[in-house]
Each structure stands twice: as structure tokens, then as C-alpha cells.
């Protein structure tokens, strides 16, 4: 009986994984450990998430690029 529960749990997990993949993206990139630690410390000190960091950095770079192209 336990094996069937495990199988059904795996199906639910896999189904949810497909929904997440359809809704979200992942850069799947590696960075040097020192930079990783520095960024994580910065995020913790400033109460930011990694998503906040990426979004805010992207917006700042986009704004800078837009201003340079004028």
C-alpha cells in the first residue's frame, strides 16, 4: 500500500513541477562562492529576496541602458 501512496505522491509532485516550470523560469547559473556569500549577506542585511535582487538589478540596468541610448 505504501508504494502506491509514494507513486501517487510522485505524480502530484511531478504535476506541480510542470505547473511551476510553465509559470516560472530559472537561470541555473553558477557564481563564485565569494560573490555568492557577499550577495547573500547583502540580501539578509537589506531584507531582500533573490527575486527582489534580480528584479531590482534588471530594472536599474534597463533604466541605465535606456538613458544611454538617448
Largest sheet: none
Average pLDDT value?
A: 85
Beta-strand residue fraction: under 5%
| Silhouette | extended
The succession of helices and strands, N to C, reads HHH
Structural class: mainly alpha
Annotation field: number of helices:
3
Number of strands: 0
The whole-angstrom Rg is 19 Å
Low-confidence stretches: none
C-alpha termini separation: 67 Å
* Percent of residues in helices: over 70%
Question: Explain this structure to me?
Answer:
By secondary structure, this protein is mainly α. The chain is 79% helix and 0% strand. The protein is built from three helices and no strands. The longest helix is centred in the first third of the chain and has 22 residues, at 2-23. It is extended, with a radius of gyration of 19 Å.
Question: What's the gist of this structure?
Answer:
This protein has 70 residues and is an all-alpha fold. 79% of the residues lie in helices and 0% in strands.
Note the topology:
Layout: H1 2-23, H2 33-46, H3 50-68
Overview features:
70 residues; mainly alpha; 0% strand
